[in-house]
Structure formats: C-alpha cells, structure tokens
Amino acid sequence: MQIEKRKDGGRLAIAVQGRLDTNTAPELEEALADAGVTEVEFDFAGLEYISSAGLRVLLTAKKALMGSGGKMSVVNANETVRGVFEITGCSELFGLV
Amino acid sequence: MKSMAQRKLARRLVGAVSIAFLASMALTWMLHEKMTSREIQNIINNVFNDVAVDIRERVDARMFRQAMVLRDKVYEMRENDWWNDPDESSRRLRILADELGVDEICVVNADGLLTHSARREEVGALDFTTAEGQAREFASLLTDRYELAQPLLPNTLRGEMIKYVGVWMPEGGFVQVGGREKSVRNLARSALTGLTHGWHVSGDDGGIFIATDNGTIISHPVAGREGGQWKDPGEDSYCEKRIIEGFPVYVVIPKRTAVVERRLLVATSAFLNGMALVLASILVGIVIASYVKDQLALQRSKEMSMAKSIQESAIPRVFPLFPEELRMDVFATMHTARDVGGDFYDLYLTGSGHFIFMIADVSGKGIPAALFMMRAKATIKGAVQTGLPLAEAVAEANDALSRDNDANMFVTAWIGELDLAAGVVTYVNAGHNPPVLVARNSAPAFIRSRSGMMLGAMGGLPYTAHKLALAPGDMLYLYTDGITEQPDMRGELFGEERLRFSIETMLASGGVALERGDSPLLRALFRAVSAHGGGAELADDCTQLLLRYNGDGGVGGAGCRRFARSFLAVQKGVADASAFIDEIIETADSPKIHVILDEIASNIVKHSGATGFDLAVELLDSPAGVRLVFTDDGKPYDPLAHTDPDTTLPAEERPIGGLGIMMVKKMASSISYRCAGGRNILTIDLVNKK
Predict the structure, then answer these.
(1) Strands A11-20, A39-50: parallel, antiparallel or unpaired by DSSP?
(2) Most A CBs within 10 Å: which of B581, B595, B596, as the mutation test of the A interface?
(3) What is the pLDDT of residue B554?
(4) Residue B120 sits in the same domain as residue B61
(5) Considering B74, B115, B175, B364, which has the largest number of Cβ atoms within 10 A of its Cβ?
(6) Is B296 contained in some domain?
(7) CATH number of the domain that A46 lies in?
C-alpha cells in the first residue's frame, strides 16, 4: 500500500493506493495522526479493496473529526470499495462522493 | 572386533604396567637390602649381648672357685701363730696368690676391716664400711650377700684395674681374690672352651668364635675345632668382633643365609606387587575399553549421519516441485531412523506428458544401503527415461541392479507413470507395500495387484504393468514399511488397516490432504505413527508420498482445481495467505476474495487462539466460482451465530469492529460452518456473476 499526503492548512488530502486490510490499516492510522486537521479527503482512486480493518480506521478518523466539528469525504472509490461501503452502510457516514 | 586404536592402547597399557612393576621391584629390593642389613646388625647385637652374659658368668664362676679355695685355706692358716704376724701372713698369702693364679688376696673381718692381704702395706689400710669407689660395694658381704663379682675396675687403694670377687664367711667377714686382666684371662681360658658349641646364629651356618690375644681359638661352634688360629671369613659372611672380658669374640653370619631370607621376602612382595598391578591394569583396561567403545559409537554415529546425508541429498526435498504443473500436486516426506535404512522416492516429469513417481526401500542399513540406494535410483531413472514401456524399463533396471551385486542387496519399489492428460496411472510393483487409493467418492482402499520380484535379487525376470484411472481429485498414497511396521510398546505394529482408517478419518474430519508445497495429511499420519511408537525412536525409515490428480483443466474443464496451504495464526500468516491467493487467482472477483480472506483470517488470528489455519481454494467450474475453506485449530466459534451490527446508527453510536463477518456474509454466495475433529471449518462459496 502506498499513501500520499498533502496538507493545506487544516485540510488533509490522502491518496491511498493498493489494499487496505489488516496488514496495511496500521500504516494509514499512523498517517492520520496529524494534529490540527479539520477536513480530510480520502482519494481511493488506486485502492483495490478495503476490509473492515480499513473501515475501522476511517470510522476512528470520522469520530475524531466529528468531535472537533471537522469534515470527511471519500472520492474516486472503485466498485468493490463502494460495495463494501454500501454493505456496511458507511457511504453517507464517510461522505462518499 | 578390536580396532587398531584398542590394540595400540593395550600395548601402551602393558608397557606402562611393566615399567611400574620394575620400578616398584627396584624400590622393594633397595628397601629389603636396607632392612636386611639392619636386621643382621640386630641379630649380631643380640648375640653379643647373650654371649657376653655367658662369658661373664663363666669367668665369674672361675674366680669364685679360687675365692672359695682361698676361704678354705684361711680357715687352715688362722690356726697358726704367724697368722697374726702381718709380715709373715702377707708373705704366705703372696705365695698362695701365685698358686691360685690371682694378683690380690684380701681377708676382711666382721667389722669390715682389711686384716690380711697379699700386700703387706695394705693390711689395716682399708675399712670397707667407709671405703669409697670399687671397694664400697663389697660391704654388702658383711650383711646381706654371700658372694659378689665385679668386672675390671680401678681399685680403691691404688687405682689399678683389677677384677675382684668375694665370698662371705659364715662367722663374719669375707675373703676376696682379685686379678689383673691377664690373670683373669689365664684363669678363665679353660672355662670358656666349648662355650659356643652348637650355638646357632641365624640358621645353621652362622656361629660365635672366642679367641685369645694371639688369635688362638678357644671356643668354636663345632666341638673339637679349638686350638686353631682365627681367620677372617672373608666377603661371604657378615663378621663382627668385640672384646668381652678381654677375649676377642667374633660373630659370623654367612651372607648366603641372609640373602635367601631376603630373596623370599622380595619374591613375596614381587608377587603381591604384580597382583596389584595386574588388578590395576585390568581396571584401567576396563575404563579404556569403555572409552574406546564410546569413541567407536561416536564414529558410528558420524557414519550414520553421513549415510543419512547421502540418502537425503538424493531425494527431492523442495516442494512444490513442479509449480507450473497444475494437473497434479505431489508431496513426499522421509523421516530417517537412527540406523539409516535405504528408503527413497523419486519424482520427475517426462517430455511426453507423463509424471513418474516412485517410492522404494533398499534392504539393509547404513552406508551400504545408502550407496545401493544411490545406484538403484540412478539405474531406475536411466531405464525409465529410455522411453521403453514401464514394465520393460523396470525389467532392465532389475537386470542392471542384479549384475555386480556382490553384496546381494535388493530394493522394493512401486513405480507409477501418470498420464497427465488422461489421468491414467501405469504402474509396476516390485515387491513393495500396496499403495492406498484415496478417491473422491469412495473410502480409501489398498491397490493390491500382483507384485513382481524386488529389484536386484535376480536378473532376467519379467515385470507386469497395471493401469489405474484417476478422476480429478483422486489421490494415491505411497509409503514404505517403516509406516506400517512401527511397533508400539507391546510390539503391535501400526499396520495397514490402522493406516487406511487414519487416512479416512483425517480426511472426513476436514483435514487438508495436500497443498501446494505441503501435505497436512502426511504430517498428521507421521504424527500418528510416532504416537503409536510411544515417542520412541523410529524402528525404520518412514517415507510417504501423496499424489493428487487435479484433472486436465486446460482441455475439457473436467472437475476442479484445488489449492491449499497452511499458515501460522499471526498477522504474517494473513499476509502470506493474501499472497497465496494472488498466486492462484486472477479474476474480477479477486478483491472480494481478499476482503473475505482478510476478515476471516484476522478473526482467527485475533480471537480463536489457534496456532495456525489452513486455507483451501477450489476453483469451481459449474457454476464457475471459487470456494474458500478455512480450517483452524482454535476454540470452537461459529461466526454465523452472531447478530449483525446495526448499520443505521450514527457514527458516534457505532461500535468499532464487528462489521467484518457481516461483510463476508453479504459478499458470499453461500457460507457454512461446522466443527469437526476439534477444528473450525468455514466454507465460503463465491459464484461469479455473469
């Protein structure tokens, strides 16, 4: 998995490539441990699939942002990832575009 | 059988013991030499003491006789008038002294006063009761003694060396005679004649000689030999001279006597020393023998490990052996016993779309078996690769192995040739144990065809090939007799039926037979055989081979393709399983399979307490799809028995986690759980959506 971060003030754009599962989720969690972020955009154009371990990281991020009144969105997700979001009812929660 | 090393050690031991023996003998000899001369000196001293007492007694007795003659004369003489005339009495006593052969005569009255003497000037000059020196002792004759003899002593009045003896007179007083050394010797000379007759000193040969001043022998050990001159006995004898009462006395001990005694002593101690050393060397020998035995055992175990490595180097050990060949899977294991047997197996593809698989067991053990095994393996392979029909190739190999087989070794073998396209196995059995056919739709069964002779026993024999058709998924299990003939504590063998039954139950309880690169079934069977042996050492090499025909997927699409592998129940195992999926699957459904794998495998890793899990992937043909079978040895857990989390809750109310199983259930076409043989078995089907 590859993670590309771009920070612009309180806005963080993260592009994730590869697979987001139990093996790689800790990496993403680490990448999100940035203070002072109020808006996060996940670019999943290169993401092959996401498992519940990845969802857990997103959920943790969402909860943290909600506590500080921040926003979160997911863009460019493929069909598999969208399917997972739909199955788990996370599409709206994670701001899937 | 004694080794060179043993003989060398024995020679050294004998050498060391001999040196020790000689050294101890030399020491003993020296000690005895010293002890003997001391002993002889003791004997000589004792003899001198004894002979001195005897000589003095004789001399004293001779002097007493003169004293008693004197006393008788005094009784006569004092009747005369002149007795009271000192001049006359002294003159007459002087004459008497000469007659008696003495130098002094003294007559003492009851008061102790010297009243008469052969010396006129001494009459009345001495009072014995008050006298000093030599004379004083004689006062005892006045009160409590009858007689007294003194050795030569300086006399009280003149200081001259005189030997005095005295005898009492019943009416009071006493008489004394005294003599200078020469006079005493003259008097005593006759008394000493024959004193030492028959006086044996240290055996019969020693003796005591008494001589005079001028060397005339007056007492000889042999009666009648007196009168001769004393002659030194020379080197053959110990000889010592002492002067006793003026007489030279010789004690003679022939060395011969002493030496004989010493030799006896030395011989005795030599015998004892020898015994002790022999005993010691026997003990040392035993210690060395056990040491040598250990060394030999060590050497033997080195040889054994060499045989083991010859054996192991000759067989394919890396699986999957032919990763590109998907029409069959094969796995084999060999566990060598301590006394290496000659098991081997061989696996190779021929150019003509056939796969040769064989298992064999060479008679005998150790290096000879290992070497014959190398030869057998090469010979059989060479014959099979000529392209001859299998039966003829085996007959050729048998002829070749029977030639120049001086050691009369032989090998049993089961050789199969699988037609990868048709699934037909052509096989020849050369005296080997019957394999087990594990077909998909029937119970495991032995293939008992008529067997040919074992290879290498006799040339010129024909072999017959048999045929066996395998359906995709069918397996063949080959083994050596180390498996079936492993005894338990009571000697009962593992046996064919237990083997067949073990295969059946292991597979029925969801056990994975074969994965790419491993075979849980073979490992489980080996564990069962080991357990049967009670954990003791293997009785013989245990070799197993498992072949599965997967079907010729490329042609007719008949049947399925199945892949399986075991993973450790740690995060790394999940990653490995993911890589395993990548290895075998390239379809549009692969992300879904990965998600399912990640959910199930990470659940097993985190929550089941399992040590490992097996993943089997079956490619289904109708309907097309994939079946995933997860098996783990963790605590029983049915993931389907849990209610799904509520996905309509807002984020802050949702529990983190718990979504995984729900995702799997929604993605899968069908999912089922069962618990069998202490293992969780979860089967998930994904059917391709067209």
Answers:
(1) parallel
(2) B595
(3) 39
(4) yes
(5) B175
(6) no
(7) 3.30.750.24
A17 located within any domain:
yes
B567 plus B543 within the same structural domain = no
Answer yes or no: do B185 and B50 share one domain. Answer: yes
Q: Does the global pTM surpass 0.80?
A: no
Query: According to the model, what pLDDT value does residue B76 have?
Result: 92
**What are B333's two structure tokens?**
């294991």
The helix or strand, by DSSP H or E, that contains position B581, with its residue range, turns out to be helix B571-584
Residue B284 in domain: no
Q: DSSP labels for A25-66?
A: HHHHHHHT--TT--EEEEEEEEEEEE-HHHHHHHHHHHHHHH
Interface test with A, best of B598, B607, B656 (most A CBs within 10 A): B598
Asked whether residue B252 is domain-assigned, the answer is yes
Could you tell me the residue range of the domain that residue A18 belongs to? 2-87
Chain B residues with CB within 8 Å of chain A CB: 571, 574-575, 578, 591-592, 594-595, 598-599, 601-602, 605, 647-648, 650-652, 654, 656-657, 659-660, 662-663, 666-667
Whether B355 maps to a domain, the answer reads: yes
CATH number reported for the structural domain that contains residue B322 in this entry: 3.60.40.10
Residue B378: give the domain boundaries. 314-549
Task: Residue B656: list chain A partners with CB under 8 A.
Answer: 56, 59-60
- Which residues between 11 and 30 in chain A have a beta carbon less than 8 angstroms from any beta carbon of chain B? 19, 21-23
Tell me how far apart the alpha carbons of residues B315 and B313 are, in angstroms, rounded to a whole number: 6
Q: How many domains does chain B have?
A: 3
Comparing C-alpha atoms, which of B552, B676, B667, B546 is closest to residue B614? B676
pLDDT digits (tens, 9 = 90+) for B290-319: 888 898 888 888 887 887 887 787 788 888
Of the pLDDT bands very low, low, confident and very high (cuts 50, 70, 90), residue B677 is low
B95-115: per-residue pLDDT in tens?
999 999 999 999 999 999 999
Q: In this predicted structure, what is the pLDDT of residue B437?
A: 95
Lowest average pLDDT, out of A18-27, B268-277, B301-310, B582-591, goes to B582-591
Do B594 and B501 share a structural domain? Answer: no
Residue at A95 is within a domain = no
Residue pLDDT, tens place only, B477-513: 999 999 999 988 888 899 999 999 999 998 888 778 8
Q: How far is A59 from chain B (nearest CA, A)?
A: 7
Residue B585's CB is within 10 A of a number of other CB atoms, namely: 15
Distance from the Cα of A9 to chain B's closest Cα (Å) equals: 26
Residues B57 and B104 in one domain: yes
Inter-chain touch A52–B663, beta carbons under 8 Å: yes
The whole-angstrom distance between A91's CA and the closest CA on chain B is 11
Residue B651, pLDDT score: 57
* Residue owning tokens 């006062």: B139
Select from B524, B549, B574 the last residue of a domain.
B549
Whether A97 is covered by a domain: the verdict is no
Contact A55 B651 (CB under 8 A): no
User: A44 lies in a domain?
Assistant: yes
Percent of chain B with pLDDT over 90: 35
What integer pLDDT is reported at residue B261 of this predicted model? 67
**Location of structure tokens 């050789």:** B415
CB pairs under 8 A between A and B: 74
Q: Distance, in angstroms, between A67 CA and closest chain B CA?
A: 9
Question: Which of A22, A59, A62 is facing B598, going by the closest CB pair?
Answer: A22
The pLDDT tens digits of the residues spanning B109-138 come to 999 999 999 999 999 989 999 998 899 999
B222 with B73, same domain: the answer is yes
Query: What is the separation of C-alpha B276 from the centre of its chain, rounded to a whole number of angstroms?
Result: 20
Q: How far is B590 from chain A (nearest CA, A)?
A: 9
pLDDT at B558: 37
For position B522, what pLDDT does the model report?
A: 94
Distance CA A73, CA B645 (A): 23
| Total number of domains constituting chain A | 1
Would the ipTM clear 0.90, i.e. be above it? no
8 Å CB contact between B438 and B503 = yes
Residues of chain A contacting B580 with CB distance shorter than 8 Å: none
Instruction: Please give the residue that has the higher pLDDT: either B550 or B446.
Output: B446
Residues 6+ apart with CB under 8 A from B484: B433, B493, B494, B495, B496, B499
Which of B273, B288, B305 terminates a domain? The answer is B273
